[in-house]
Design brief:
Blueprint (H helix, E strand, L loop, with lengths): L4 E3 L4 E4 L8 E4 L6 E4 L7 E4 L3 E4 L7 E4 L5 E7 L4 E6 L6 E8 L7 E7 L5 E6 L7 E6 L4 E6 L8 E6 L3 E5 L5 E4 L6 E9 L2 E8 L11
Antiparallel strand pairs: 1-2, 2-3, 4-5, 5-6, 6-7, 8-9, 10-11, 11-12, 12-13, 14-15, 15-16, 16-17, 18-19
Length: 217
């Protein structure tokens, strides 16, 4: 049987272990932004929201990966909608975790995409030790990360390509150098891809609009 996970626009998320016959609801403090399976580790799945969470039994039980639970000093619920966030001893980027990507060639190599709470630039973080430690690779044009493509797809393990709503950037994890790659259109509303027999393949959607007499996007 396969193990799909679903998220709602509220705080609940759902998983089934019997092909949809029964569903288990679970709560990771707030709405889940993204799920990601580790292709090299059966049953290992990540979830991203105000923290990064990991389950090693297909979504039955979850533990916090980032921030380190030992560093969490407070959990806050603020504003009219009780927006949830964590405070830590060493400080966290004031950002929502929009996306998580596990390198299919190395399950210790994990990326997370950050969207600022206060309209700042998007950021990309990386871990080389399965989430025990993290570093920010760079800030990125745009506010929201739409896709993360690991360099192992094209045999460059220390490279990553990131698509935001405004740009496509290739980043060297060794030097931090960035290369802007042209996009056919912006703003990007979704991007996805994978690696097949013929190599990596990437799709993207841009916003449909009508500035004059013709539709573009």
């Amino acid at each position: 049987p396969y193990t799909p996970l679903f998220r709602s626009d509220m705080t609940g998320a759902y998983v089934t272990f019997d092909d949809g016959g029964n569903w288990k609801m679970f709560n990771l403090r707030t709405r889940v932004a993204d799920f990601e399976f580790d292709p090299g580790s059966e049953g290992t799945v990540y979830a991203a929201n105000t923290a990064l969470w990991r389950s090693e039994n297909g979504g039955l039980q979850w533990s916090m990966v980032f921030p380190d639970p030992a560093d969490v000093t407070h959990e806050r619920m603020a504003g009219d909608h009780a927006e949830q966030f964590f405070e830590t001893t060493d400080g966290l980027p004031e950002a929502w975790l929009d996306m998580v990507r596990v390198d299919p060639a190395d399950g210790d190599h994990i990326y997370i995409g950050l969207r600022s709470w206060w309209n700042g630039p998007a950021k990309i973080m990386v871990s080389d030790d399965r989430g025990a430690s993290w570093r920010i690779l760079t800030e990125l044009p745009g506010s929201t990360i739409k896709a993360i493509f690991p360099g192992s797809w094209w045999d460059k393990s220390k490279e990553v390509t990131v698509i935001t709503d405004e740009a496509c950037i290739r980043i060297s994890e060794l030097s931090g150098d960035t290369t802007h790659l042209p996009l056919p259109d912006t703003p990007v509303i979704h991007a996805e891809g994978g690696k097949g027999d013929s190599g990596p393949l990437i799709y993207m959607l841009s916003e449909m609009r009508k500035p004059g007499q013709e539709f573009i996007g």
